[in-house]
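User: Sequence recovery, please. Input:
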């Protein structure tokens, strides 16, 4: 019982070809250039630059997940998305909890 599908197709990842990789690469370069230009040119205030850098980083992360890791909302990828969301929740709890503990310890020591 041999199958004509490659292991990637059996696991549910879609092989989109070179065009998908080129679009992902172009978007990643675009968001990187936006980030560097905000910092180097100093054309925007620091508060706006921090928000802009955060948005550019989030968008670049989504580009990498979609175009390079081929994560989408298909039923075959659902468990990968659930695991990614759970990991993001854990990271948020760890970092947020650490910052909260450090802040409260600092306020108690002063």
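Assistant: Recovered sequence (110 residues):
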């Amino acid at each position: 019982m041999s199958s004509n599908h490659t292991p990637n197709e059996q696991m549910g990842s879609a092989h989109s070809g070179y065009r998908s990789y080129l679009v992902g690469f172009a978007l990643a370069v675009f968001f990187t250039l936006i980030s560097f230009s905000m910092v180097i040119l100093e054309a925007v205030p620091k508060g706006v630059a921090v928000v802009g850098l955060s948005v550019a980083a989030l968008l670049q992360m989504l580009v990498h997940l979609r175009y390079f890791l081929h994560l989408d909302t298909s039923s075959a990828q659902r468990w990968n998305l659930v695991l990614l969301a759970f990991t993001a929740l854990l990271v948020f709890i760890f970092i947020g909890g650490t910052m909260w503990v450090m802040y409260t310890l600092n306020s108690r020591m002063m």
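The mean pLDDT is 85.
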